[in-house]
Amino acid sequence: MFTNEYVKRVYAQVEQRDGNQPEFLQAVKEVFESLEPVVAKHPEYEANGVLERLVEPERVVKFRVAWVDDSGAVQVNRGYRIQFNSAIGPYKGGLRFHPTVTESVVKFLGFEQILKNSLTTLPMGGGKGGSDFNPKGRSDAEVMRFCQAFMTELQRHIGQFTDVPAGDINVGGREIGYLFGQYKRIRDEYSGVLTGKGLEFGGSLARTEATGYGLCYYTAEALRVLRNDSFKGKTVAISGSGNVAVFATEKAQELGAKVVTASDSNGYVYDPNGIQLDVVKDIKLNNRGRIKEYADRVPGAEYHEDCKGVWTVKCDIALPCATQNEIDEESAKTLVANGCTVVCEGANMPSTPEAIAVYQDANVLYGPAKAANAGGVAVSGLEMSQNSYRLSWTFEETDAKLKSIMESIVANSLAAAKEYGHEGDLMLGANAAGFVKVANAMVAQGIL
Ligand code: NDP
């Protein structure tokens, strides 16, 4: 646990106030453990109450979303937008539509987002939002009516200079289109208020690919610098089959790896010959189907119920790209026992604290989510720039900027880790590097 008195005191306050928010506490604890050497070196942070302010969102918006389904029945969901920290830019972070969305989940995501956005080097504050709406099995018309109802309230709280949401789980191009349309209709304003937009109406090339590609650029750079190694010839296990997983698979294959798994919340497929990505794209992106269908279509592939089983597959590199806490202590031990030496996180907080301890004991190269998956929000930041300029960059230009941002995240994390006495520790380095910029801005702007 903590040794620094300031960190200990603030964490105790968070536990007391938010004891019923387990995911949020988990995220704060992980960050605070890394920040002990940082606050010890910077007494001005304690004098300015930086940690106390960092863990308290600037604003929490929680609202009713009422809509009518195809059968004419009234449905009521909960909507959230947590505007966590605007010290270095407008609030920025995705919207998640999933039945597991609670205030605790949105707060953990928003808190992580503060440091992630800081790491990208772009001027973006931290925020996150979403709803417990489950789009699975809903028609396009129902998804549209839900998005319109959601935006009817959200539009009061966001704006291109205030808060710029994006997608996350179950919020992709279709949902962003409906949300953007409703914002435009109510506000009579055509602005870059959302990112992840369609290319026809202000979206950026390479945004769809950005999180998955960025994850691989980050992993490749960390492997190069820390292990003098690469993706070439490696066997890779990837969980999920959504936006992040699909484009992580694409880039890992391009960099010479063999990706052997894909999963969804029902189960996973193992393809010893290497995942055929066109089949996964057809099932998930075109038909919104289940990953089970892959084994029906590809000879030699196996389907197993229980998505957690994906971590029993032998691999050199694991890239979790589904959801929070998907790798627990047992799965981490299995990965290590099977020879996995690299875990870089595409999903947000996919490893439990016990799993992270297993990686650390086994000297696994561990790339934490807020650094490894920052490519998505980085290109969202580039989409905001292009919207402001009223122009668009080519795919190659944007992709090159993404690659250079991911490489600088590795370099900045390693430099911070060294400065605070933990050379080579990408987790401590990411937390410290992301935090210092935000903390300095908070001190400079006074007590707010
Ligand atoms: P998608 O909705 O496109 O895909 C999510 C994938 O994860 C699906 O295969 C889904 O399966 C699976 N999944 C979701 N919940 C669970 C669960 N409880 N157990 C097992 N599998 C589950 O989302 P994204 O790919 O966009 O997001 C994946 C992760 O990456 C999230 O943690 C998100 O926060 C993070 N992320 C996303 C970014 C982005 O740009 N999109 C940016 C940075 C991070 P099923 O179809 O069965 O639900």
UniProtKB/TrEMBL annotation:
Q: Which GO terms describe its molecular function?
A: glutamate dehydrogenase (NADP+) activity; nucleotide binding
**Record PROSITE patterns:** GLFV_DEHYDROGENASE
Q: Where is the Glutamate/phenylalanine/leucine/valine/L-tryptophan dehydrogenase C-terminal domain?
A: 204-446
Residue numbers marked as site, Important for catalysis: D168
The answer to whether the entry has keyword NAD is yes
Give the transmembrane region(s): none
What's the protein called, per UniProt?
Glutamate dehydrogenase
Q: Which organism is it from?
A: Bifidobacterium tsurumiense
